[in-house]
Predict the structure.
Amino acid sequence: MLAKRIIPCLDVKDGQTVKGTNFLNLRHAGDPVELGRAYSEQGADELVFLDITASHEGRKTFAQMVQRVAAEISIPFTVGGGISELADVERLLAAGADKVSVNSSALRRPELIDEIVRHFGSQVCVVAIDARQDETGWTCYLNGGRVSTGRGLFEWAREANDRGAGEILFTSMNHDGVKTGFACEALARLATSLSIPVIASGGAGEMSHFRDAFTLGLADAALAASVFHFGEIGIKELKTYLRKEGTNVRL
């Protein structure tokens, strides 16, 4: 069985790492370059960098910052935010990214997934999905959770899978920053209906939540931000705990 991955996420706004709750009330969490270096040294399996206001503000991800982070880390690096065409992907890969994460632009123009896969390979294309659950089910949102699309989570994830995406990064907006655990039921449904890896995001508050994401949610990787940024959970300690709980992780 492939090892489960632990992935810190740098949500970046105006050159600083930030973290909010339910996508609102952002607070500063540190310098992205320093945090990236620290996570690489601590044994994180991958690093995700999301320019969280790029799509909303209609601009491109800050490639210079990506370059600075990439120079300090030795783990796979995924970058997202404001990617709407192949030239954006090329620019970010040249700056040091290993993969790109597309969200709003892929929902608006799903063919973007096909184009990235055709030119760069499916391993480069991560489709990020921000979804909120209400009484009607799970709905996908655009522009950092600001705009409802009316599209269902499971239907869109299946389409992304069929178009050749390499991974799905699913963030539950209901669970984001609340620290009560991941959306394990939705994760398990995704994991069993898709043929590609699913990354869990939104809700990590304690070590057992990561275990549950893997055992109950059947996720291939678990992503978190504030618990790592503010020192509430150490990556080495988390991996030691998971190994003791029977989860296959790289120590």
Observations:
- The chain has one domain: 5-244.
